[in-house]
Specification:
With 458 residues, this protein is an alpha/beta fold. The chain is built from 14 helices and 19 strands. The chain is elongated and about 80 Å long.
C-alpha cells in the first residue's frame, strides 16, 4: 500500500525531508523533471508542445522538463504566467526557449501544465481563470506536474511527485485528473516508504487471499445467507448469491419472496432457498442483506443482526442502519446516492465537498456505526474508523446495474471464509475492480452476469 497525504501534509513532509537530508532545491527540481521525462517521453515524441510556466518551483519543474525535451529535439514552446518568478525559476528561464506571449491552444498537440503546484493559496485571478478555461476547452492532451494547477486544470495525466495527494481521489472530481503517475524526485525510496499516514492507496499487489487447501470442500468453504429480492428487483439477490459462489463459498442460501425463490428453483440449482419464517441463522457463516429488497423487513433485519454473524449491509437494508452499532462485525456498502441519504438520516455532513472532509466523515461514521464503510464511486473509499483505504478504480464500465450486488456477494463470501471485515472489504474491492477490467476488455460494456464470470479468486 502507498501512503496518501493531503496537500498541506505533503507540503510539510516536503520541507521536513529537504531539511533532514540537506537536499538542494535545484537537485530536487532536476530529479522531478527527469522522472517526468521518463514517464512522458514516448507520448510527446514528435508532438508540438506548449509549456505553461508559473512563478514558483512548479514552474521550475516545467522549465527543466522543457529544457530536457528541447535538447532531445522536441518542438517546445513556453508561455510564462505574469509576475516575478522566484530566484530558481528566473535562473532556469535563461535557457534559449521559444517563448510565446500569447497562444491558441489549438496550435499544439500537448499542453504541459506547470503553473502552480500544491503550494498555491488565495483566490484565482480572472485572467488565470480565462487561461484555465482555454486549456480545458482546447482538446489538447494535457499533462499536469504534481497536481493540476489551482485544482482547476482538467488533465489527461498527472505526474505526482513524492507522495499521492488526497485531493486527487475525491470520487466527485477524480475524472478531472486523468492517469496518475507517481515519481520520486530524489528522496530515499526506503525512507519514503516508512512514512505513515491514515490514508493508503490499495492496489493489486495488496491482494493477499490464500488458496483453499486440497482437502477443502463445500462445508469448509463457508455458507452465505443472502437476504433480499422483491417483485420489482428479483435479480439483485441472485447476482449476490452467484458472485458469492464464484468467489469461493461452498454453500449459498437465498432468503426471499415466493416469486424470487421460484426463479431460483427453476434456473439456479447451485443456490439453495428458504422462507424468511424458516430461517435458522446459526447455520450460516455470513449474511448479505439488502440487494433488491424493496421495502424490506425490519424484523428480519433485526434477527440477522442479533445472530452475531458477520454481515454485509447494502442497498435497501441501509435504511434500517440509523441508531445501530454493529460492533465492527458489519461491512456497509453504499454507492454515492445511498451514502448521501444515510448521512442525511444520521444528520451529518457527507463530506463530499472536499477529500479531507470526506476522510474525516468516513472515519467518524465507521466509529459511530461500528462498521467497515465501503463507499462506492469512481474511487472506492474504505474506512474502519482508524484508517481510510482508497482503490483508484477509474473504471466507468463498473457503473452497470447489478455491479454493487456482485460486490456484496464477494464481501459475504470472504467473510464466510473467515476473513476479518476490513480484509474482506479490501480484498473484495480488488477482486471486483479487477473483474471489471477483465470484463471490459473482453466484452466492452457488459452485464452483471458477465462481470461475475470474470471474478478470479486464488
Amino acid at each position: 500500500m502507498k501512503a496518501i497525504f493531503s496537500l498541506e501534509e505533503a507540503r510539510k513532509l516536503d520541507h521536513s525531508f529537504i531539511k533532514k537530508y540537506s537536499l538542494s532545491e535545484s537537485s530536487l527540481i532536476d530529479g522531478a523533471a527527469m522522472g517526468a521525462y521518463h514517464v512522458i517521453k514516448d507520448q510527446v515524441y514528435k508532438k508540438r508542445i506548449l509549456f505553461l510556466i508559473g512563478k514558483g518551483n512548479n514552474g521550475s519543474d516545467g522549465l527543466e522538463l522543457a529544457r530536457i525535451l528541447s535538447e532531445e529535439g522536441a518542438d517546445v514552446h513556453v508561455f510564462y504566467l505574469k509576475g516575478n518568478p522566484n530566484e530558481e525559476n528566473a535562473r532556469r528561464r535563461g535557457y534559449a526557449f521559444k517563448v510565446v506571449s500569447s497562444f491558441s491552444p489549438y496550435d499544439y498537440d500537448v499542453i504541459i501544465d506547470a503553473l502552480c503546484g500544491f503550494g498555491f493559496h488565495g483566490d484565482i485571478e480572472e485572467d488565470i481563470l480565462d487561461l484555465v478555461e482555454r486549456v480545458n476547452d482546447s482538446g489538447c492532451y494535457t499533462i499536469s506536474l504534481d497536481v493540476p494547477s489551482f485544482m482547476q486544470i482538467i488533465a489527461n495525466e498527472t505526474i505526482v511527485f513524492m507522495f499521492y495527494k488526497l485531493e486527487l481521489f475525491n470520487p466527485l472530481s477524480r475524472e478531472k485528473f486523468g492517469m496518475l503517475q507517481l515519481v520520486n524526485p530524489g528522496f530515499d525510496e526506503h525512507e519514503l516508504s516508512l512514512v505513515e499516514s491514515d490514508v493508503y492507496l490499495i492496489e493489486h499487489k495488496d491482494l493477499d487471499l490464500k488458496p483453499f487447501s486440497i482437502s477443502d470442500y463445500k462445508n469448509t468453504r463457508g455458507h452465505v445467507a443472502v437476504i433480499g429480492g422483491s417483485e420489482k428487483y428479483p435479480g439483485a439477490p441472485i447476482l449476490s448469491a452467484k458472485s458469492a459462489i464464484k468467489s469461493g463459498s461452498g454453500l449459498v442460501t437465498l432468503i426471499s419472496t415466493d416469486e424470487v425463490r421460484g426463479v431460483v428453483l427453476s434456473s439456479y440449482p447451485s443456490i439453495m432457498v428458504q422462507r424468511a419464517s424458516e430461517v435458522d441463522f446459526s447455520i450460516f457463516s455470513s449474511i448479505a442483506i439488502g440487494p433488491g429488497w424493496g421495502s424490506g423487513d425490519e424484523r428480519l433485519f433485526e434477527l440477522a443482526i442479533e445472530s452475531g454473524k458477520p454481515i454485509v449491509i447494502d442497498a435497501d437494508a441501509l435504511k434500517f442502519i440509523p441508531g445501530k452499532n454493529f460492533g465492527m462485525r458489519a461491512v456497509i456498502t453504499p454507492h454515492l446516492g445511498e451514502y448521501k441519504r444515510l448521512c442525511k438520516a444520521l444528520s451529518i455532513d457527507n463530506g463530499l465537498s472536499s477529500s479531507y472532509k470526506l476522510k474525516q466523515t468516513l472515519l467518524d461514521l465507521s466509529r459511530r456505526l461500528g462498521a467497515i464503510i465501503v463507499l462506492k464511486g469512481s474511487t472506492v473509499w474504505i474506512s474502519n474508523g482508524e484508517k481510510v483505504y482508497i482503490y483508484d478504480g477509474h473504471n466507468p464500465s463498473l457503473g452497470v446495474a447489478g455491479s454493487g450486488d456482485v460486490l456484496t456477494g464477494i464481501v459475504a463470501s470472504l467473510l464466510a471464509s473467515g476473513q476479518t471485515p476490513l480484509r474482506s472489504a479490501i480484498e473484495a474491492v480488488i477482486l471486483h475492480q479487477e473483474a471489471g477490467l477483465r470484463a471490459n476488455k473482453k466484452f466492452g460494456y457488459y452485464l452483471a452476469d458477465e462481470l461475475i464470470m470474470e471474478i478470479e479468486r486464488p
